[in-house]
Amino acid sequence: MHTRFPFGPIPKRLHENLLNLTTNTKGPGVHEAERQEITNTFSGEVIGSVLLGAEEDVTRAFDLARAAQRRWAETPFSQRQEIFRDFHDRVYKNRELMMDIVQMETGKNRLSALDEVLDVLSNARYYANKMPDLMSEKKRPGALPGFTRTVQQQVPKGVVGQITPWNYPLALGVSDAIAALLAGNGVVAKPDSSTPFSMLIAVLFLYESGLPRDLFQVVTGSGRIVGSAIADHCDYLMFTGSTATGKILGRQVGERLVGYSAELGGKNPLIVTNDANLDVVERELPSACFSNSGQLCVSIERIYVEEGVYDEVVRRFQRAVSKMKIGAGDAWDIDMGSLINETQFNTVNKFVDEARAAGAKVLCGGKPRPDLGPYFYEPTVLVDVPEGTPVLTEEVFGPVVFIQKVSSTEEAIQKANDTSYGLNASVFAESGTGRKVASRLLAGGVGINDGYAATWASVAVPLGGMKQSGMARRHGPEGLLKYTETRNVAEQRLLSMRGPKNAPRKLYANLMANALQMGKKLRFLP
Which residues are catalytic? Predict the structure, then answer.
C-alpha cells in the first residue's frame, strides 16, 4: 500500500517512479525535453512535472507497445483475468491516495473523486469476469447444416490509441484501457496536459499487478503534437472530449480507415412532470447538475418543468442549492469543489454575465468565490432566460443550469430533443410516465428519477452519445468488442458448396433454392 501525501507535492521517489512510466523518458535525448509543471488546482502549488513529448516519442511508444502486444495476444485468458483482479484489489487498497491525486489535479470534491475510483473498480471487475465469454470462439450456424462448420472469433485490433480529458482523468484514463487490454490489445495513451498523474498512478498499479511493462505506454504532452501523432499511428482510437476536437480526430483516423470511438459534448436536459415526487427532485437535482462542479459531459444544464409544479420545484431547488457547501480539501461534507483552471473559470463567468445582461434572473449563485481559491464559482441557477442567449443552447461545462416552465410533457420532450447533442437526458416522474417519456428522448442514456449516475454506473449496458455527442459505446459487451475484429472461419466438409462434382448445375441450383425455401418454412436454416 502506497503512502498518502494529502495535497502536498508528490514525494520525490514516487514522482520519479511515475515519471519513468512515460515513454518520454525511455529514449535518447530525453534530457533535452521541455518540462511542464503540474499544479494543485486548489492552491496553485507545484506538485510535480512531466516531460512534453514529441512525435518521435509517440513513434517509439507504438513500437514498444506493438512488440508487447504480439506476446500479450497469446496470453491465456485466465492470466489476463488474474492481473486485472489483482489491479482491482490494489486500487481498492490505495483508493485514498488515488483520490488525493485526482483532487489535487482537478480541484473536484472528495465524493466526485470517489466516483472515479469506483468507476475503475467497476470496469476492472466487470471486464475481468466477462472477457473470456466475450472473447471465446463461438459456434455459428453454417451455410449447409452438417457440411459447413462455422465459428466466430474475436481478434484484438492491435494497439489502441487513447486521448483523455482533464475532467475525469483517472476514470476516463484507465477504465477504457481496461477493456482494450483485456481484449488483447496494447495501449498508447495521452493524458490531458494538466492531469497526468491521475492516469500514471493507475498505470503504476497495473504494472505492479503484473501487466507487461511495455504494453501500456503513456506519452505526456500537447494534444496538437502528441494527440495528433497517436491518431496517425493507432489501430483504433478512443477519444473523450469536445465535439469540435472529435470531428478533427474523426477525419484524421477516417483517412486511414481506422475505427473510432468518441464520447463528445452534451447539453443535457432534465424534465420534471406534474406527477413527479418532489422530495426526490429536491434531493437529486443538485448532484445531477453540479457534480464535479458541472464539468461533466453527462451533467444536466437544462431543466424543463411542467407548470403545475413549476413554482414548487423552483422553490425547492433554490433551497437545496443554497445549502450546498463549496470549498477545497478532502472533507466529505463538501458538495462542490473548484473549476479546473482560469480558462474554464472565464468561460463560466462569461456565460452567466451574458445571461444576466440579456435579462435572465439569477436565482442563486452567479458569482466567483476568490475567498475559497482562484477558480471557485458558485453553483448557479438561472430562470427567465431570453431566447437567443448562448446559455440556452451552448454547452457551459460548469456549474450553471437554467429552468424553464412548460405547458405539457409534450412541450418538454420537444424542447429536450431540440438540440444537436444527444448524450444524456433525465426525467423525474411517476414510474409509468417516466418510462413513456424516456422512450422518446433522443439521448444515449436516459435516467428516470436520477440525473446520470444510474446509467453511468450500470457498466453492463453500453453507453454513449447520439447525434453530435459521439459514436460507438463504452461499457457493456460493446465496450470491449469494439476493440476487436470479428473473424468468420468456415470449414466445408464432405460436400462442396458448389455441389457434387458430376451433378448438373441446373439440378443442383434448383435443389439449393428449394432447400432454402424449405428452410424458411421449417426455420432450420439461419
Answer: 263, 297
